[in-house]
C-alpha cells in the first residue's frame, strides 16, 4: 500500500479521474495497466485524500483508497442513498448494499432505471473488461501452501493415514479444514493482497483453495466399492495426482459432469412447467380491490412491508409508519391465495404494493426465480467438493415431536 497523500501523483489522479464521466478500457489501461518496461501508474490500494470537491458525501482531507474512490464515484454516489462507503467491499457488505437498494426501490427513493444503470455499471466495472485492471490480482502467496500449513499437512496426513486409507469422510473433512484454516491464518499474518479473493467471497478457500493446494478430499463413491460410500483423495492439483488417486479423480469427474449435464434437466423442466402454468398471471390495475373477506391469520413481520391487512373492515397498508404498530401481532392479512378477481389477474389489495413499486406487472414470470435457483445450485455442485457435518442432539430431534 503506497501513501500518495499530498503528492503530485495524487493531484494528477484526481484531475484525470475528474474528467471521466463513464469509465472505459482505455482510461483504466492508462491508470492501472502494467507494461513490459514500466509499473502501473496507480494501484487500487494507494492511499489518497479527497475533499468535498471530489465527493459531496465527505469532509475535506478524508483518507480513502483509489479503488474505493472509483467504486463510489461511478457506482454508489449516483444512487444517492449510501453516502461514501469507505471500507473494503466484501461479500457481506455487498449483500447489505443490494438489500438497501431493494429497500430504496420499493420506498420510491430511487427508480428502476437507476437500478438498471447500477447493475450495468457494476457488471462492467467489477466483472467485465475492467475487472482485470481494477481488482486485486492473484499474489504469489496464495499460489502455494504457506510453510506452517504445509508442515501441518504432512503431519496430519501421516497421523490419520489409516482412517484416510479406509475412506473415512469425516476424518478427511476435519484434516483438510484444519490445514486450510492454518493457511488462512498465515496469509492473514503476512497481510497478502491476494487474500482479498477469499475475503470478498469470490473464492471459497475450503473448496477451491484446498483442492488446489491441500487435498481433493472425500468424494462420493459411484462404484459401490467403499463401505463408507466415499473415496478419499489425498492428492492436490498443485503437486500432482498420484497413480493411486487417478481412478478416484476420474470418478469425481463423472459425478461432476452428471450434475451439470443431467440433473440440470430437472430445473429446465421446472422452468417450462412454471412458464406454462403462470406466464399469463399478472396484477390488476393500481387500486383494484376484489373485496375479499377471506384472510390469512398471520403474525406480522418486516417481510409484510407494503402488504395490506384488514382491521374492522378497513384495509390498512403496512408501510414505514404503520408496520411498527402491528409488528408481532396476529392480523388479517389480505393475500393472493384468497383473491376473488377474475383470472388471470390478482387485485392490488390482495397482492400488496411491492410489485407496483418495482414495476413487476407480469407476476407469473417471477416463478422462474425458483427454477433459476435450482439450476444455479446444480451448476455450483459441479465445482463444490466440500463435505459439511453438523452435530444433532436428541433435543434437536424431539422439538418436532408433539
* Terminal Cα span: 60 Å
Overall spatial form = globular
Low-confidence stretches: none
Helix content: 40-55%
Strand segment tally: 10
SSE class? alpha+beta
- The tally of domains stands at 3
Tell me the Rg in angstroms.
27 Å
Order of helices and strands: HHEEHHHHHHHHHEEHHEEEEHEEHHHH
Q: Looking across the biggest beta sheet, what order are the strands in? A: 6-9-7-8
Mean of residue pLDDT? 88
Assess the beta-strand content as a share of residues.
5-15%
Summed up, the helix count is 18
Largest sheet: 4 strands, antiparallel
Report on this model:
The protein contains 18 helices and ten strands. It has helices at residues 8-17, 25-32, 66-76, 91-106, 112-127, 131-134, 147-159, 161-165, 169-190, 196-199, 205-213, 246-261, 264-278, 323-326, 348-351, 354-358, 368-381, 394-398; strands at 47-50, 62-65, 217-220, 230-233, 282-283, 296-299, 308-311, 314-317, 330-333, 345-346. It is globular. The mean pLDDT is 88. It has 402 residues and is an alpha+beta fold. A four-stranded antiparallel β-sheet has the order 6-9-7-8. A two-stranded antiparallel sheet has the order 1-2. It has three domains: 8-134, no CATH class; 140-261, Topoisomerase I, Chain A, domain 4 (Orthogonal Bundle), CATH 1.10.132; 282-361, no CATH class.
